[in-house]
Amino acid sequence: MSVRVLLADDHLILRQGLRAILERSGMQVVAEAGDGMEAVRLTTELKPTVVVLDLAMPVLNGLDAAREIQRDAPETAIILLTMHTEEQYILAALQAGVKGYVVKTQAAEDLVHAVEQVCSGTLYLSAGVSQVVTQAYLKKTEPSSEPLTPRERQVLQLVAEGKTTKEIARMLEISVKTAESHRTRVMDKLDIHDVAGLVRYAIRRGLIQA
């Protein structure tokens, strides 16, 4: 039985390239998603063997999507695909339940190896990433604390993407009053009281790309 993979990336051309690579290796791509929320929904519905998540995706970023998938479909192995090799992202990914951390600048075969490894129950880290993890372990580095709840992070991301409170309420299927309450709590917790400041914070945390 072939490995069933779900691809999530907001760039269609990249998804098409990844699909071709995986299918040439005998794997079955069962679905594609253009944002993190869609990736969570499709993973929960289809229960693929592996889901490949881009870190920077609209609506819901790859890390928060990974957390939701880990909760709703724990049998699906998660691979994060990213340009980031900084310690904070790697540690946060591992803490979120990610089993594979693949750097986009590596050879295409790196993703195939990652899928094969996580399917066998082994953690896979791209070259260079494992050294960062080892150094963090030796320094006893803890993942940076997260002051926001998952819902508040999602609201922050949508605000940083330029969505209005009404749009956020509609997308998250909550009332406008609740969306406004989340937005206010985000600003109070972060002590940031303007949208430009929230955008800068979201970029630093990897929720959106600059």
The overall average pLDDT, rounded, is 89
- Write the element-wise H/E pattern from the N-terminal end onward: EHEHEHEHEHEHHHHH
**Binned strand content:** 5-15%
Structural category? alpha/beta
Query: Which radius of gyration do the C-alpha atoms yield?
Result: 17 Å
The helix fraction, in percent, is 40-55%
Q: Could you give the count of β-strands?
A: 6
* Shape by Cα distribution: globular
From the N-terminal CA to the C-terminal CA, the straight-line distance is: 41 Å
Structure description:
By secondary structure, this protein is an alpha/beta fold. The protein is 52% helix and 13% strand. It is built from 10 helices and 6 strands, in the order E-H-E-H-E-H-E-H-E-H-E-H-H-H-H-H. Strands 2-1-3-4-5-6 form a 6-stranded parallel sheet, sandwiched between helices. The chain is globular and about 50 Å long. The relative contact order is 0.11. The mean pLDDT is 89.
List the helices and strands and how they pair.
Elements: E1 4-8, H1 12-24, E2 28-33, H2 36-46, E3 50-54, H3 62-72, E4 77-82, H4 87-95, E5 100-103, H5 109-119, E6 124-125, H6 129-138, H7 150-160, H8 165-172, H9 176-190, H10 195-204
Parallel strand pairs: 1-2, 1-3, 3-4, 4-5, 5-6
